[in-house]
Each structure stands twice: as structure tokens, then as C-alpha cells.
TrEMBL record:
A Pfam match: MOSC_N
UniProt-recorded Gene Ontology molecular function terms: catalytic activity; molybdenum ion binding; pyridoxal phosphate binding
Listed SUPFAM superfamilies: MOSC N-terminal domain-like (SSF141673), PK beta-barrel domain-like (SSF50800)
Family matches, as InterPro entries: MoCF_Sase_C, MOCOS_middle, Pyrv_Knase-like_insert_dom_sf
Domain MOSC: residue ranges: 131-313
Source species of the chain: Phormidesmis priestleyi Ana
Listed name of the protein: Putative Fe-S protein
């Protein structure tokens, strides 16, 4: 078997917005640092994605001292990277910024922090619907895949899992089929993985992996990724199309899903716990308990680097 390596590393700070390619990334208990810690929600607090709003693909972000946000025909917007809630008994326009709210993502309800009037106006103008940007603080408690792995295995605003892995060979296999049909090849950006693997001899070898080591981190791969309509969104135009989903369905449809890539959870690393963020004044007992229960979200774990060796520790049983 050819040597397997980590060839690409990506984060998507705002759920369903464009991603950022990294040379190295810091792992946390919710996934890679900054990955899907921000989310756009409608007036009811429900998550918004490219499934209904494909133009979200045109929202680009950059990480520096702040999170910088851009989109076509919009002024640049900057928001803090680390945010703590302001607990206020009265909500007024002056206290909108950084107030705590409850949001919903795939049936999970969890605490978030509203980013305030300026960002709300920015996203409402771009999206054409009343909405706002929210941030997931460290004390917010959202278990992976609705608690399938226990209350302490956390996830950010990602759909269900903290990591998504895809091999270059799987994308190459898809592109071969697209080209044979006279369709244009697609890039890995369509599938929004965090981890891209180089060195597989055949497409979808990752389907057979149960446990792997990347660098010093060990991951379980408990579930294939069931693809929605988002791979059909052109990341450069924000326009929804039929491909590559139509072609994927011809050979990857099974058990009422179209499967492409592996969801991952981290199960082992060199853990070094950071101190949790300061608890805001006025926090309730329930919020304090949630913050204590979610202290693993503050743990700073190891770093992943492009070029890290990947070792298959265990294969799935047939």
C-alpha cells in the first residue's frame, strides 16, 4: 500500500460559507479550531445553509486578529474571534451585541451569542431575509450526532460530526465519471471536508476504515457521510446545479442515501487542558453547570499538519 498522508486541511468558520485552507490546524474537543463556530440563523433562531440559500457559498472569511467577512457588493465586516455573552435582564438596541440566545441546528437546541446589530444588518442585507450571525461559546453544550457517543463528545455547528474525511482517489473517481459524460470536473471544495487523504490506490478506500491515526491523533470513523444538495452548488457562482450529485447517485446511492466521505470523531490525543473562559456575571446555576460539563470544549489538543502520516489502525468488519 502506498504511504497515506494528509494532503489538505480545511476549516469553515461560518457554517455554509466558504472555507479556509490551512497548512496546520489546532484540534479542540469540538473539531478543528474555529471550524463552524459561527452560524447564520433566521428570525426564529433556526440554522440557514446553502441547501436553501446557495449564495452563502459566496461569503468568504479570513482569520487574523478578528474574523473578517466579505461577499460580493458588500462592505467588509469584522467580528471578534473569542466572544463571551453579556447577561442583561433587558434587551434593547444598545444591548443587542453579544447577548445570549438559543438556536437550533438539525433539531439540536443550544446556546449561542448574537453578534449584534451591525452583523445582523450585514447578513440580512446580503441574504435578503431577516437573519443574524451567532457564535458558539465554550460553555455551549451540543453532543455529537444527537448524543450518540455520550454527552462529553461535543460538536460545533457542523451538521453532526466534528470532522469529515475524503480521499483524493474518491474525488478522482467521481471526476472520471463526470468527464466521461461530458460534464466538468469538480474540486474538493464542493464536499467541504476538513481532512483530505493522499495515497489511496482506489476510490472510497476510506469507506473500509474504522480507526486511523493522523500524526499523533487517533480517530474513529463511525459513519459515512450522506450527501445533501450542497455539492451541487458552484462555490464560485453560488448557483445550484444537478452535478455532481446526479452522477454520484448512479454509483453511490444505497440505503436511501448518496454516500461520499467519512465522518470522524477524535478519540485520543496528547491533551493539555486550558483554563475555561471567564464566566459572565449573572450566569444562572444551569448555565454554570453546563459550562462545567462542557469544559472539554476548552481543551487544547494536538495540531494537525499537511503532510502528516496516516496509519490505518483497524478496518470495518464486513
Amino acid at each position: 500500500m502506498a504511504a497515506l498522508t494528509l494532503s489538505e486541511l480545511h476549516v469553515y468558520p461560518i457554517k455554509s460559507a466558504a472555507g479556509i485552507a490551512l497548512r496546520e490546524g489546532q484540534m479542540t474537543a469540538r473539531g478543528l479550531q474555529y471550524d463552524r463556530r459561527w452560524m447564520v440563523v433566521n428570525a426564529s433562531g433556526k440554522f440557514m445553509t446553502q441547501r436553501q440559500f446557495p449564495k452563502m457559498a459566496l461569503i468568504s472569511v479570513a482569520i487574523g486578529d478578528q474574523l473578517t467577512i466579505n461577499a460580493p457588493d458588500m462592505p467588509e465586516l469584522s467580528v471578534p474571534l473569542e466572544i463571551s455573552p453579556k447577561i442583561s435582564p433587558e434587551i434593547s438596541p444598545e444591548s443587542e451585541s453579544h447577548r445570549q440566545v438559543t438556536v437550533e441546528v438539525w433539531g439540536d437546541r443550544c446556546e449561542a451569542i448574537a453578534l449584534g446589530t451591525e452583523s445582523k444588518q450585514w447578513f440580512t442585507r446580503f441574504m435578503g431575509i431577516d437573519c443574524q450571525l451567532v457564535y458558539m461559546p465554550n460553555h455551549s453544550h451540543r453532543p455529537t450526532d444527537h448524543g450518540r457517543f455520550g454527552d462529553d463528545q461535543l460538536v460545533s455547528f457542523a451538521d453532526a460530526y466534528p470532522y469529515l474525511l475524503i480521499s483524493e482517489a474518491s474525488l478522482a473517481g467521481l471526476n472520471q465519471r463526470l468527464l466521461e459524460k461530458g460534464e466538468a470536473a469538480v474540486t474538493m471544495a464542493r464536499f467541504r471536508p476538513n481532512l483530505v487523504v493522499k495515497g489511496c490506490r482506489e476510490a472510497h478506500e476510506e469507506d473500509t476504515w474504522q480507526q486511523i491515526r493522523i500524526g499523533a491523533g487517533v480517530f474513529e470513523l463511525p459513519k459515512l457521510c450522506d450527501r445533501c444538495s450542497i455539492p451541487g452548488v458552484n462555490p464560485h457562482t453560488g448557483i445550484q446545479g444537478q452535478e455532481p450529485t446526479k452522477t454520484l447517485a448512479t454509483y453511490r446511492y444505497q440505503n436511501r442515501g448518496i454516500w461520499f466521505g467519512q465522518n470522524c470523531i477524535q478519540i485520543e490525543a496528547d491533551q493539555r487542558a486550558d483554563q475555561p473562559a471567564d464566566q459572565p456575571a449573572g450566569q444562572t446555576a444551569a448555565q454554570t453547570a453546563a459550562q462545567t460539563a462542557a469544559q472539554t470544549a476548552n481543551q487544547t489538543l494536538m495540531r494537525l499538519q499537511v503532510g502528516d502520516a496516516i496509519e490505518i489502525l483497524r478496518y470495518k468488519t464486513p
